[in-house]
């Protein structure tokens, strides 16, 4: 419950700094919070990363200002930190899909975001089957990308997976899937102040790919079937909004593991997905 209180306080911090460029990594370090752990929990509870939340809330407040019409467009642009009106109009259209001058006409149809508050719902019955097991460290080989903590989102993960599949590299990876865990593994952790994302397979074979090793420990493994691009987010939401309040163990969110079992198209309606939640 203390985690939820901290996230609510951090939302207040973001709301107080909507007009500024926030270095989320630095802000969390100053607060003594491990960034990967916090961003995982924040995203699962709020439905977006802190950066995405700030950007969407900023554009929502701008839309309301344009609709109310109390200030000139150039004054609004300067107030929210845009270098000029052209940059502001470009960013607004990119976010809202319309020009600032059309806001009055389309305000009722815009995808606006009010300040988020949430209610924790205790778990009653399991929404996703799960089991808790001890897993020894195992080797993953695959492709690695690094992202800034300030603007990373799950969209980056899904796009990387899509690109690998499109280029035939998922099939190539599966040819090295000689380890005990079968399927495509998505592994995230913080390395030198960046988020390291590896898409790979468990393997004991020599390969031309990058490699990493998971941590040994207890995991609760949640399973679901559906469109993986949506299912992944839904399982994490279930874990952090409901399941964790019944668990007697603390969660370790310093890294994350998901396993796409089959088929390996994240937009397929009946893919099998596992989320491995590490326990302290």
Automatic annotation (TrEMBL):
Keywords: DNA-binding, Transcription, Transcription regulation. It comes from the Bacteria. GO terms for molecular function: DNA-binding transcription factor activity; sequence-specific DNA binding. InterPro entries: Homeodomain-like_sf, HTH_AraC, MarA-like, Reg_factor_effector_dom_sf. Residues 8-106 form the HTH araC/xylS-type domain. PANTHER family: RIGHT ORIGIN-BINDING PROTEIN. This is AraC-type DNA-binding protein. It comes from Lacicoccus alkaliphilus DSM 16010.
């Amino acid at each position: 419950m203390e985690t939820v209180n901290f996230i609510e306080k951090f939302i207040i911090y973001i709301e107080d700094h909507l007009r500024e460029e926030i270095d989320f990594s630095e802000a969390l370090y100053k607060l003594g919070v491990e960034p990967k752990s916090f961003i995982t929990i924040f995203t699962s509870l709020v439905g977006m990363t802190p950066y995405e939340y700030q950007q969407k809330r900023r554009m929502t407040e701008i839309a309301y200002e344009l609709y109310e019409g109390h200030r000139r467009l150039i004054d609004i642009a300067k107030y929210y930190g845009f270098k000029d009106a052209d940059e502001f109009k470009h960013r607004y259209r990119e976010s809202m899909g319309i020009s600032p001058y059309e806001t009055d006409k389309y305000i009722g149809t815009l995808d606006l975001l009010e300040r988020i508050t949430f209610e924790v719902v205790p778990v009653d019955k399991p929404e996703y089957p799960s089991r808790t097991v001890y897993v020894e460290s195992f080797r993953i080989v695959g492709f690695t990308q690094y992202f800034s903590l300030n603007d990373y989102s799950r969209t980056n993960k899904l796009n990387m997976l899509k690109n690998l599949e499109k280029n035939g590299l998922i099939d190539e990876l599966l040819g090295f899937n000689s380890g005990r865990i079968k399927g495509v593994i998505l592994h995230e952790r913080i390395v030198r102040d960046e988020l390291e994302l590896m898409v790979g397979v468990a393997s004991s074979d020599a390969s031309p790919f990058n490699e990493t090793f998971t941590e040994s420990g207890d995991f609760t493994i949640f399973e679901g079937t559906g469109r993986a691009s949506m299912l992944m987010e839904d399982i994490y939401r279930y874990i952090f909004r409901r399941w964790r309040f019944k668990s007697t163990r603390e969660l370790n969110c310093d890294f994350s593991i998901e396993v796409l079992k089959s088929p390996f198209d994240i937009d397929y309606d009946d893919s099998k997905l596992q989320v491995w939640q590490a326990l302290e």
